[in-house]
UniProtKB/TrEMBL annotation:
The lineage of its organism: Bacteria, Pseudomonadati, Pseudomonadota, Gammaproteobacteria, Alteromonadales. Belongs to the UPF0149 family. InterPro entries: YgfB-like (IPR011978), YgfB-like_sf (IPR036255). One of its GO terms (cellular component) is cytosol. This is YecA family protein. Pfam families: UPF0149. It comes from Pseudidiomarina salinarum.
Length: 195
């Protein structure tokens, strides 16, 4: 079974990942999981040790330990996100439904991704005052995008807007990583005030 959409990473196609998480009792879809992970990585969460997995289980699995297969998939996704964001060629891609899916579904997944990104990002970055003006603006824009309620009046315009927003979010996430995530080797500094 191979994807015909060349822009989609075979390893992490939206449909297959969502199905995988469903099979393992994870209620979040692929976009939500990818958004949270991206937010955590971009915000400077350390992926050393198990702290980030414990935090993620609080966010998407009601604090329950992940089965080994899920844990392995999450580690793989987090690693791919880190590599993609650190790539000078900007190879990082968001996990969203393929272009063959109805625009409404893609927009819903996009909103879920950005809301989840903000949750993952907020785990480490609660005070935005220390961020660069560009990054603060990008986060403010993400907050606004997360609140959008898309009405699709003109399919062509909506399609174009969708791709522009996806690209803007992708670049904004990389900007976050460049400013905050690259120095996450210093150890896990996650705020554990979720309970």
């Amino acid at each position: 079974m191979s994807d015909t959409d060349g822009s989609e990473n075979n390893l992490h196609s939206y449909d297959r990942l969502t199905e995988f998480f469903e099979q393992h009792g994870i209620l979040s879809n692929a976009s939500e999981v990818h958004g949270i992970l991206t937010g955590m990585v971009a915000g400077g969460a350390s992926l050393k040790g198990d702290d980030w997995l414990l935090l993620l289980s609080d966010l998407i699995n009601e604090g329950q330990q992940f089965p080994p297969a899920v844990r392995e998939k999450l580690e793989e996704m987090a690693n791919d996100i880190t590599v993609g964001m650190g790539d000078p060629d900007l190879s990082y891609q968001m996990v969203l439904p393929g272009d063959h899916q109805p625009l409404y579904e893609r927009l819903q997944a996009l909103i879920a991704w950005v809301q989840s990104f903000l949750v993952g990002f907020g785990v480490n970055q609660t005070n935005l005052a220390g961020l660069s003006a560009d990054l603060r603006e990008a986060i403010d824009d993400m907050v606004e995008i997360a609140k959008l309620d898309f009405a699709i009046d003109d399919e062509e315009d909506a399609e174009r807007a969708y791709f522009e927003i996806v690209e803007y979010l992708r670049i904004s996430a990389v900007l976050c990583f460049t400013e905050l995530g690259q120095n996450s080797e210093a150890g896990c500094k996650t705020n554990k005030t979720l309970h």
